[in-house]
Every structure is written in C-alpha cells, then in structure tokens.
Design brief:
The protein folds into 2 domains: about 60 residues; about 190 residues, Glutaredoxin. Helices cover about 65% and strands about 10% of the residues. A 5-stranded mixed sheet has the order 1-3-2-4-5. α4 links the parallel β2 and β3. The protein starts with a helix and ends with a helix. The model has no long low-confidence stretch (mean pLDDT about 85).
C-alpha cells in the first residue's frame, strides 16, 4: 500500500506539471504535455482503483474473498472430476479387477472408496455408506484399501484384499468388522517394534470370526494379487492427487472427506 500511495502522488504531480506546461508553455497543445497528462491519468486511475478495491475487499465486503476462494475451489474440483471421470470410464475393469467389492458385483452404479482402517473419518463415511447400501440394491462399493498409516494400516488393508480371493462376501464381512470394532489397543502400541505383528494377529482373529480360512488368508496377504492391488491403489491415488482418506468417486464426481448420506444419494441419482 505504501508504494501505491507514492505512485499516486507521482501521478498527481505529473498531472499538475502537464497542466502547468499546457498553460504557461509556448506550445499549449504540445505532444509532450499530452503524453505527461495521459501517463498521469493512467497512474492516478490505477492507484485509485487499487486502493478502492483493497478497501472494498478487506473492510466493506470481506465475504467476497471467501466467495472467490470457494468458486476457485469448485472450479478446481470440477476439473479434477472431469479428469477422473475420463480415466474411470476407460479403465473400470483394471480398477476393479483385484479390489474387494461390497454389494452386488453387477450393480449398475459404482462407488470407488479410498479408505484406511485406522482413519476415524473413514469409519464415519463407512456408516453413511452402510445406510446407502441398506436403501439401494443398484449400488456396489469398490474398496481401494489405501494403507497410509504404516503398521496400523498394512495388515487390515492386505487382509481385506486377500479375503476377496475367498469371496467378496467374506471380504465385505471383514471390512465391516474392521470398521466397526477396534483391532488394536493402547497396549499394542506401547512397543512400536512389535506393533505390526500384533495388529496382524488381531486382524487374523477377526478374519476367523467372519468365517475366513486364516491360514490361506495369511498366505494370500503375501501373494501377487495383494501386491498388485496395493500398487494399483497407490498409483491411482497419485494420479488422482489423493493425499488422504476417505476419498470417494461416485459416477462422474470426486468427493474428498467424509461425505454424508444425503450427498452420496444425490450423486448416485445424477
């Protein structure tokens, strides 16, 4: 603002000098006088506009700044959704191939869900999706298990992917149990060097409770299908600029964060 005022003063001074030249000089309509006055007018107009605009935005109507930011974010999200829509349309088969599916495999509508079992917001959106699935029979959820919290995330993510090899119903049952129950305790976290092993033990115990063959599950967790799907989840997250969970793709729209039931239903009906 300081330099704006300085330039404004210079502009006024130039205008006065130009007027003086026009009044007292030998050539009142000289090109030099006209140029000086024109430059002065431009400087005065620009500086006045800047001062008025800043005052309006910061004091008179600061809410407009929030509106501008919101509009920009909406535009960016729309562009992101367009790119995602194009990719999903061309690569649906690859995105689903090794991923666990919640619901009918041949459902007409698809929700892709990037989720982490140690994420509290993922648990919140899981409950919202459970409501959706209870009310709709034309929807399937493709689980993209995004392991982003190390030992807290790795075993459950791999276990649910491996469970698909014993049936999507078993994978969905394990997914539900992991989202609704605690699979590690404060005691488990006391020794970080043993956390991964303790979490895996707890996850396998839950897998047994939902009827999975845990010996086979443990082998499959180390197998090529799980490794391929984990890589696919990470590659897509990088391509779609997914830095956190939950993240949903519903139809042709992308939704970061814990999306509520009503918004999910609205997106499905578009």
């Amino acid at each position: 603002m300081f330099w704006t005022i300085v330039v404004l003063i210079i502009g006024i001074a130039l205008f006065l000098v130009g007027g003086f030249t026009a009044t007292n000089g030998k050539a009142p309509t000289s090109v030099a006088s006209t140029v000086i006055k024109l430059v002065a007018i431009i400087l005065i107009a620009a500086c006045t506009s800047r001062v008025v605009t800043k005052t309006y935005l910061t004091r008179t109507n600061p809410a407009i700044l929030q509106e501008m930011v919101s509009a920009m974010q909406e535009q960016q999200q729309a562009e992101k959704s367009k790119a995602i829509r194009s990719y999903v349309k061309s690569n649906m088969g690859e995105m689903i191939a090794d991923a666990p599916i919640w619901g009918k495999e041949d459902a007409k509508k698809t929700i892709f869900l990037w989720s982490d079992y140690s994420c509290p917001y993922c648990r919140r959106v899981h409950a919202e999706l459970a409501r959706v699935m209870a009310d709709r029979d034309d929807v399937r959820i493709v689980l993209k298990n995004f392991s982003i919290h190390g030992d807290l995330s790795d075993a459950p993510a791999k276990a649910v992917i491996a469970a698909k090899l014993q049936g999507n119903d078993k994978a969905a049952a394990l997914d539900k149990k992991l989202m609704e129950k605690e699979y590690y305790s404060a005691e488990d976290r006391k020794d970080p060097s043993k956390l991964g092993a303790k979490v895996q033990k707890n996850v396998l115990a839950m897998a047994a409770e939902v009827g999975l063959d845990t010996a086979q599950l443990e082998r499959d967790m180390k197998g090529p299908v799980v490794a391929r799907e984990i890589k696919n989840v990470r590659d897509l997250a990088q391509q779609f600029d997914i830095s956190g969970t939950p993240f949903l793709i519903i139809g042709d729209q992308a939704f970061p964060g814990a999306v509520p039931y009503a918004q999910i239903m609205e997106a499905l009906d578009k």
